[in-house]
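Just scan this pair:

***
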Amino acid sequence: MNTRGAVLVANIITGLALGFIVTSIGFGDYAELNRMFTFQDPRMLYAFAGAVGIIVVVFTVVGVRRVPTRIHGGVVPGAVLFGTGWAISGGCPAIPIIQVASGYLPALATIGGVVVGIWLCRWANSRYFQLDRGACGL
């Protein structure tokens, strides 16, 4: 198998494993996400904090160094839109796919919103903003 095929297979297996884990611990459930965003249940926030702590340790051990650079002009408004969409829809871009796979069909509206949002971002950037594409590849 060529390298691209191996990477694709590895991504599919990893994605299925992540989807299974996320669903089995309840993080694909809209009500669970709502409890996190309304600070009724900090369990999910603790999971995120633990993941950040683990990656900090791994990056330190592996020796990953990142030099701080100027913040891209679209980071702050993009983060606000992303967080707002996550809170409203009950999931970041990966969670609606897990929700649809679990039979929660209203998540199709979220997936449609992501597609429309990407299109609107590209349209607005080409017409009004002309932001530096950087590594994002708008």
